[in-house]
Amino acid sequence: MKEFLLTDSDFKAISSQVYDACGIVLAEHKREMVYSRLARRIRHHKLKNFKEYLDFLEEHKEQEFSEFINAITTNLTSFFREPHHFSYLKNTIVPKLLVSNAKQKRVRVWSAGCSTGEEPYTIAMTLSGLFPSDWDVKILATDLDSNVLAKAQGGTYTAANVNGLDQSHLKRWFLKSHDGQLYKVKPELQKNIFFKRLNLLQNWPMQGPFDVIFCRNVVIYFDKPTKDTLFKRYYDILTGSGHLFLGHSETLGKDHKEFKNLGQTIYQKGGL
Q1: What is the per-residue pLDDT across 159-208, written as a single tens digit (0 to 9) for each?
Q2: SS3 content of the chain, % helix, strand, coil (to 5)
């Protein structure tokens, strides 16, 4: 028997609140995940069941709601995840930007759903040294979860976190602790990355335009109308020939002819 009772109506109420807040669809198969993640909050507040937690959430929305959302949103990431994306960025997109953006000497990349920071730091490592020193190259890294954003901004990782990085990257971009268990990103890598909390479904304070948007393993949680709205907004904030990267199990679908499908979940604006 489980520690806390989670009824169908409780699960429905949780799913509804998560969907309204951030557009993430919690289907029935996510029930166990919801249970394990919110059970921590129930224990934290010394409550008896999910019904009590939902009542508590209603009464203490201001203090508890961000904890509730943080607990639900998943954050699984690693350095150089889906490495072909970074090869494409380096070998195909950058040479084009060096020509197309030569006049304004400006490049903007957005890591949307940056989680604990591995993706934006990988982008920064990939772009390092590829543009002349007088170019203005900046990376915006956003996430809904304030806890992972704080970790990303701190830039400290365990030896297990940096497991996939080769020695040259570790030596060039990280400071190692005396016991070899922690690795901290060097300020040089951090200086052009700007971390901000952002709900993708609310108003965006930034104007853009962005040359490249990484939105990987984020839209997998959204339903079709939410995805369609988001893709339209990405289209509007990209430059004329900007690129959008999605996660390996994600797709724009057949409705978005305004993007050209380049394969390997890489899309370019201007497909029509």
Answers
A1: 888 877 889 999 999 999 999 899 999 999 999 999 999 999 999 999 99
A2: 45, 20, 35
Predicted pLDDT at 74: 59
Closest listed residue to residue 193, CA positions, set 267, 127, 104: 127
> What strand order describes the sheet that includes 259-263?
193-197, 136-143, 106-112, 210-215, 238-246, 266-269, 259-263
**CA 38 to chain centroid:** 21
Provide the domain count of the chain: 2
Which one of the listed residues 31, 37, 106, 172 is annotated catalytic? 37
Catalytic annotation, pick one of 10, 41, 143, 211: 143
Can 233 be counted among the known catalytic residues?
Answer: no
- Residue 15 falls inside a structural domain: yes
Q: Identify the CATH number of the domain in which residue 113 sits.
A: 3.40.50.150
Phi/psi for 98 (5° steps) reads -60, -25
Q: Which domain holds residue 253?
A: 83-269
